[in-house]
Specification:
The protein is α+β, with helices and mostly antiparallel strands. The chain is built from 8 helices and 4 strands, in the order ααβαααβαβαβα.
Length: 217
């Protein structure tokens, strides 16, 4: 698989098979992904892998957590302007159409959102934290690291879903993984093998035309 194929085939998978992923493979992919660009070579990512027994323990821990959480950042700007607002809206509608969930069925839509916190059934996952002293440039480094990992995972036959939704669970996840005091949970990453039979995994998000966001001077 070349890079172009990996980029084209990667997508956010929201239904996984109950098929194990070895820690040895995840370790290899993380080591390779650490070659991603990093300003000043700070390598600001802090990764906590949960798999097998730790995954079971974590899901049970989350089920019993009942303290209020403190999200460390807003996932989306509160007043999203165009064309971004429409892009987000259309993706949501496309996803729920595939699932056969109408707009008025709020309970079913909420139930789908809550699957984030079960990693969509993935057997393996990791959490990506960052030191609070880091700024926007280092947060962009996290994005490059995560993208590199996802492409390498695709090359290795795995599927993924990067989940900023986990930032809403910053306190509980921090306690479970025993992260360094004050570190910020940026996102989670579901890892496994996609369930080809699930309609939601056929979702192919649209991209705006090049002319709308690039200028050749």
């Amino acid at each position: 698989m070349n890079v172009t194929q990996a980029v084209n085939q990667r997508s956010s998978i929201r239904a996984f098979l109950d098929k194990p992923v070895s820690n040895a493979l995840i370790k290899q992919l993380l080591i390779k992904a650490s070659r991603s660009p990093s300003g000043g070579n700070l390598q600001p990512w802090k990764i906590y892998v949960i798999n097998d027994l730790s995954m079971k323990n974590f899901l049970e821990f989350q089920k019993n957590w009942n303290k209020p959480e403190t999200p460390p950042y807003e996932i989306y700007p509160p007043k999203l302007k165009e064309p971004y607002r429409t892009s987000r809206y259309e993706l949501g509608e496309q996803m729920y159409d595939l699932l056969g969930i109408p707009r008025e069925d709020k309970d079913a839509r909420i139930a789908q959102v809550l699957k984030n916190y079960e990693f969509f059934g993935a057997p393996c996952a990791f959490f990506c934290f960052v030191d609070p002293q880091m700024g926007s440039p280092q947060w962009s480094d996290l994005g490059m690291f995560l993208q590199t990992f996802m492409l390498l995972a695709k090359e290795a036959g795995l599927d993924t879903c990067a989940q900023e939704a986990w930032s809403l669970k910053n306190d509980s996840v921090s306690e479970f993984v025993n992260s360094d005091a004050g570190d910020i949970l940026f996102c989670g990453m579901s890892i496994g093998f996609k369930d080809e039979s699930e309609p939601i995994n056929s979702l192919r998000s649209e991209r705006r035309p090049l002319e709308e966001w690039a200028k050749f001077l």
